[in-house]
Specification:
The protein is of the alpha/beta class. It folds into two domains: 169 residues, NAD(P)-binding Rossmann-like Domain (Rossmann fold), CATH 3.40.50; 152 residues, N-(1-d-carboxylethyl)-l-norvaline Dehydrogenase, domain 2. It is 43% helix and 16% strand. The strands form two sheets. An eight-stranded mixed sheet has the order 5-2-1-6-7-8-11-12, with helices on both faces. Helix 1 links the parallel strand 1 and strand 2. Helix 7 packs across helix 12, helix 7 crosses helix 14 and helix 9 runs parallel beside helix 13. The N and C termini lie far apart (57 Å).
């Protein structure tokens, strides 16, 4: 098989895995989706991926629930939730030959590190998915926000980069992935706020009270990162340290500027909202939890992000998921 048409296994095919895998398969890559029986069963009649700009593609990737199918792939894309990364690494360690390339396409900071520990002898690359994907029905997945994939600038990334470019899926090679991952995490601090609002992302962000909650969480994180001398990459036209100021502006000004920063489908919701809706554990420890941990390492506190951890934990246990912006600000002590 040519280097521009790698065989790819997607391990943990959920919304992101199905959309990225479907996009690559529709462009001619050999893709195997490995996932839970419920998801794989829904794809039996084909996979349809749609895009924010109106693009659409259908494909019929190979489907399985068996992890050993990853053994034949040149590239393995790991798309499980962060809490499942260690288990995924242990599973892949039993089936992957040495020398295989494994790419973490996950939220959070530590997944590539966890996979490296579990998979000695394999080449582990960190990558970042900036966009939101929503399931629109059985076998139908929609990219609901904008942005380009980012991946470690490493020769081992070349086959995936070629496959993405063949699929017209923007991807950037980066030598500063920790800064990229922190930038994504700072943006993803909205996941908890969106989940607690119960609203679509665009509706939530249109309300200044919710944006002020996000602004406070981001300011807290960015101040701690500055103390730690950790760079934060610029992923949007607005530098990350300017974003809290943009979030604080009145609604009419925000509406004017926001569309220039990132496009969002009006029906999109955060992955944390999806997790709560499905009764799954959230990634709160890998988002706000990382800010709280950073504060503790610096001898500081992170009261806004700590409060968001508490509220999401309560929501996981059946607590409120319908805060108004004013109520949420009060709950965060703002």
């Amino acid at each position: 098989m040519s280097r521009t048409e790698p065989s790819i296994a997607v391990f943990g095919a959920g919304a992101i895995g199905c959309w990225v895998g479907g996009k690559l398969a529709a462009a001619g890559a050999s893709v195997t989706l490995i996932g839970r029986a419920r998801v794989i069963g829904e794809l039996a009649h084909g996979l349809r991926v749609t895009d924010l700009d109106g693009g659409e593609a259908t494909c019929t990737p190979q489907l399985t629930t068996e992890p050993h199918a990853a053994a034949a792939a040149e590239l393995v894309l790991v798309t499980v939730k962060s809490a499942q990364t260690a288990e995924a690494g242990e599973t892949l360690a039993r089936v992957l030959p040495e020398g295989r390339v494994v790419v973490s396409l996950q939220n959070g900071l530590r997944n590539a590190e966890i996979l490296r520990a579990a998979l000695p002898g394999r080449r582990i690359l960190a990558a970042m998915v900036p966009f939101n994907v929503v399931r629109r029905g059985p076998g139908a997945y929609h990219r609901a926000s904008g942005g380009s994939l980012r991946i470690d600038d490493d020769p081992a990334a070349a086959p995936l980069v070629a496959a993405c470019r063949a699929a017209k899926l923007p991807i950037e090679l980066r030598r500063d992935m920790p800064a990229v991952q922190w930038a994504k995490l700072v943006m993803n601090l909205n996941n908890a706020i969106n989940a607690l609002s119960g609203l679509p992302l665009a509706t939530e962000l249109a309300q200044r009270a919710f944006r002020r909650c996000l602004s406070a969480a981001q300011r807290e994180a960015l101040e701690l990162l500055a103390l730690a001398h950790q760079e934060v990459a610029k992923l949007t036209p607005i530098p990350p340290r300017w974003m809290p100021r943009l979030l604080d502006v009145p609604d009419p000004v925000f509406r004017l500027l926001a569309s220039r920063v990132v496009a969002i489908d009006p029906h999109a919701r955060s992955s944390m909202w999806d997790d709560l809706e499905a009764g799954r554990p959230t990634e709160i420890d890998q988002l706000q939890g990382e800010v709280v941990a950073l504060a503790e390492r610096r001898g500081r506190t992170a009261p806004v992000n700590r409060a968001l951890v508490r509220l999401v934990r309560e929501a996981e246990a059946g607590g409120r998921r319908d805060y108004s912006g004013v109520e949420l600000r009060s709950a965060l002590g703002l």
